[in-house]
Queue: 2 jobs
Job 1
Amino acid sequence: MLIRVSLGGGMLATAKTQSMLNTLNNVVLLGLILQVLFFGFFVIVASIFHKRIRAVPTGRSSALKVPWERYLVILYLASAMIMVRCVFRIAEYAGGQDGKLLSTELYLYIFDATLMFLVMVIFSVQHPSMVINRTAVSDYRMDQLNS
C-alpha cells in the first residue's frame, strides 16, 4: 500500500504525458483508498478488543498498574486525526492536478500538517513507552510469582 502510494507519487513528478499523469494519479488514489480501508479495519479491530477486554477483563489487564485504557483512547484520537488526513488526501488526489485542494496550500496546512503535528504532540506527551516499560512488566511478573 505505502509502496504503491510512494511509487505513484514519485513517478507523478516525472510524468511526461497527460495519459501517464492520469494513470499515476489513479495509482496513488487507489493506494490511498486501500490505506483508508486497512487503517479503518485496524481501528475497528482495536475497538472490538477494547470493548471485549472491558466486558471480561483478563487477569493481566486487571493486574497492570498502568493506564492502558487511556492509551487506547489516545490511539482512537490519533487514529481519527490520521483518518481525516487520509480522507483529505483522497479528496485532494481525486480532484486532479488542477483541483482546489491540491492547488491551495491552506488546505494542506489544515488537513495535513496541523493534524500530523497534533498526533506528534499527543504521542510526545503520552508516549506508549509509558505503558510498555520494564517496570510495568517486572511488576506484573512479581505479582504472578507472589500469587
Note: The chain has a mean pLDDT of 84.
Job 2
Amino acid sequence: MRVGMKASGHARWFERLLSELQFELWIGDAAEISARRVRKQKTDRQDAQLILKLMLKDDFPQIWVPSWENRDLRQLLWHRHRMVQSRTRMMNQLQAVALNEGLRCKKKLWREAGREQLEGFQLAPWASQRRRDLLELLDQLNPTIAKLQAIEEEVKGYPAAQRLRTHPGVGSLTALAFVLMIGKADRFQCGKQIASYLGLVPLEKSSGNQRRLGHITKQGNSLLRFLLVEAAQVTVRSLPEWRSKYCHLTMRRGGKNAKVAMARKLAVRLYWRLRKEWDYEQLTKFGSHAGTPGHRDGVK
C-alpha cells in the first residue's frame, strides 16, 4: 500500500502510524503540487484527487525525506542554537544594566571581578529584581548548554562531517549541520542548486530586457544559512584570498551583501567536498586551478 501527501509540518505522528502499518509513504513538494492545480477552488477532497492523479501518472514530485536518526540529531542542533540565543539575549540585557551604571567592560563583565561589580550596584527595587532573575537564568543556561556539547561526539560517527571540518572556519557544528541538512549530495547537480536550496540566491523578477534582482530568497533551512554566514566570516579572517575577495565585495556592494556572498561561496565549496569526498588539502590541489595555464587537469 502506498500513500501520498504534500510536505507539511506537524505530521510526524502520521508518518509513524503509516510506518507501523507498513505502508509506503511518498511526500511531495507542496509548491509543485499546488502549481499543477488548474481550478481555483481548493478543498481537501480536490487535493487528494490531484495527488492520486499524479501518482497514477507516475508524475508525483517526490522529495527526499531524512531518516529518523537524522531528524533527532537536527533537534540537538536546533535546541543548542535556541539555548545560545536565549543566553545571548540575557547577556545583552545585563550589559545594558551595567552600561546604565557607567560600567563598560564588555567580555570582562562575565569574569569573577566583573560579576561582583554588576551584583554590587545599588538599583531600584524592580531593576534589582530584574538583574537577579537574569543572573539566575544565566547560571541555569550555562550548564545546560555545556551538556549539549555532545555534537563533538556525534561528528565522530559522520566521516563526511569530519572531512568538512578540515576547512578553515568550519567547526563541528557547521560541518554536522551541513551533512544533516543536505543529506545525499547527488540530489544536486551543481553549486547553483545548493545556493538556491539554502536561500542564498537573490529574488528575481525579470521581463524582456529588464532584470530586477532583490534580496535573497531565504528559502531552505535558516539554521544552516546562519551557520554558513558565521563560518564564512571566520574563513575570511583565516585565508588571505578570501579576505581579499571579501574586501573587494564590501567596497562594491556593502558589508551585508559581502557576508552573504562569502557564505554562498563556502556552501558551494562544502557541497563539492561532500560530493567528491575530499578533505581541504585535496580541494586546494584539485578543482580550483582547472583551466589555468599549466594546470589543465585542475592540479596545482
Note: The two ends are 54 Å apart (CA to CA).
